[in-house]
Amino acid sequence: MTQVKLPPAAKRFHLLVAGSCPWCRRVTITRRLLGLADAVGITYASGRGEHGWEFAQGLPAALGEVTLLRDLYARDPEFSGRATVPAVADLATARLVQVESAGILWWLIRTMEAFHAPGAPLLLPHVACGVAEFWHGTDESLTKPFGRAIHATDPAERQAAAAELTQTLIQMNDKFDAVIAELVRFGENTLADVVLFSALTTYFGLGDEKLPVGSRPQDLSLDNLRAYVHGLMMQPDWLVPEEEAALPGLRVHVTR
Which part of the chain is the GST N-terminal domain (predicted)? Predict the structure, then answer.
């Protein structure tokens, strides 16, 4: 679909997200950490049914009487494929204008900088290149294998992805001092933490019901990773009720 470069504008754009989606939580955590709640509105999906993501509670009036995300996507004549979240709607045109999490993050962090709260963290610090590499590595080793392990149509591919995910988690847990050293090098609460936290909360929150035996959170110790997630959960802005409700196993596994 057609996507545009979003300008810095308060109260014009609205985020459409799902609490269970790790790509969405990167965006929602960033929005909260930067203090953009007043400048950028948000609506969480009520569920995902036969026709895709649903917003049963309704969306802003400027978008019309829409409850299905796919109906917003369909307003773009170039759209084909799946209607995914996160997505940004322009309330001035009633159209979706950005549907890639990386593009949305860049807009929130860089373009909307004038609207950041005083004292907001520098999520992309002077070592931004290192943050980007960490981000990419997390996607390739955690987020994408988790997705393949639960969505792939080939059982063998799902099993292989689950095994890859398990190996990565065990190695990361066993060498967590090195992971922490890398995160600290970037600074406090950078985008690297946001990406890793989003991936791990997905695993701990949904792994028991989505992954095969041997790869589930209940099957692995991962005490260092649990402590890391729990520590951020205890800080303001890292988790809200809409997200925790979509991750039923999260609190069970990070506080055990």
Answer: 21-108
